[in-house]
Amino acid sequence: MMHRLVVVLTLATSRLFAQTDPPQIPFVADGEFLKLPRDLYLGEAAGVAVNSKKHVFVFSRGNSTGPAYGATASQLLEFAPSGEFLREIGKNLYAWSYGHAVKVDKYDNIWAIDKGSDMIIKFNPQGRVIMVFGRKKEASDEAGPWTHVNPPRPAVNGQFRQPTDVTWDLDGSIFISDGYINSRIAKYDKTGHWVKQWGKAGSEPGEFNTPHSLATDNDGNIYVADRGNRRIQVFKPSGDYVREIKVDVPVPADAQPWMGERPGPQTALTMQSGAPWAICITPGTKQFLYAADGFPGRIYKLSLSGEVLGMLGSSGRMPKEFGWIHEMACPSENELYVAEILNWRVQKLTLHPGR
Q: What is the pLDDT of residues 41-59, one digit of tens each?
């Protein structure tokens, strides 16, 4: 009896240790994977996506040539699987203002989410605009960015205020996270007709504080990186709440942020460890969830139930270090592409969990 008790206690302790102190995943990083033309530069790399042909799409806050108001900071670039530059998509597009994310759907359509213009643009694989969501303010009407007021302005069907990401369910319905001001998820059918919205500003289940990144699993569940609440919330395509996932892993005593003071207990949750800035879910029959935080700048590998299976990286400027990962693409379990705001780059990561 005593022997069985010891075994049970040992197993329980090992599970607890595995959850609170997951293993470091060995990996290599290629920060010079993208081969840019001589006269082309990345600005803040806000988004990255990979299509079925392994082409890489980068949404960069570059190309600063003045619009009617504010500074344009959106440039959508396509690269071959080898990293060779192929083309710029949507050069001088009316929606370009301040890039936030790029996604590719299962038909290889390219979706760009522009926080500055409050617009989401769908391109076909050839790079032509085929669907538009939202509308930016008119320059002729003394346009300016939306301001934050308290209480927040009411959300309007079909209108966005600093949207952040897009994903799709198994039926092709479209889900847009909206975003920095509206704190909701908007749902359209696959033809672009408005269906519904859910969520509002808050911290209760189903409420949001900057829904920042989206992903979908094989069952059609929608995963929302609720960054300001330091959690990932999971919903049915209907908007019904399923569960939340929190990453609670000890921070190394010597961990330093890329800039500023080390976050303390009173620091906003956005900058706390485990706050999900970017998420992605791998394809295949056995799926994994990857999440990245701003501090201490780590990527976490999770099961879809939320168990932390491993982690990698830290804040910094060198290869294998990260400066605010803003979006990730994970075309396979051990291949990641990470777009960094502060380091102005995309790194290609190859994981070696068996080493």
A: 999 999 999 999 999 999 9
